[in-house]
Request: fold
Amino acid sequence: MLVCLGAHHDPHVIHKELQELDGAMKADPKGPGRFPEPIQKIAELNKTLAGDSSFENLKKHEKLLVGTRDFINTWMQGHPDDYR
Reply:
């Protein structure tokens, strides 16, 4: 079961939640094809972060982290059957 992401402001917490959600969507029993937009947004974020999850890099890209989280929360609210 997927749930909306929290309203945390700590870049590490946001990053951790997004990575956990990415794994859950990709492992969904009905297939990751149910979540194309969120998976793509996280892939774009990960490309930008380039594997660097240091505080400095996450803080540098905090706006992108928050924007990705907010996009996914909005997307999920429009697709309630996909995360219940």
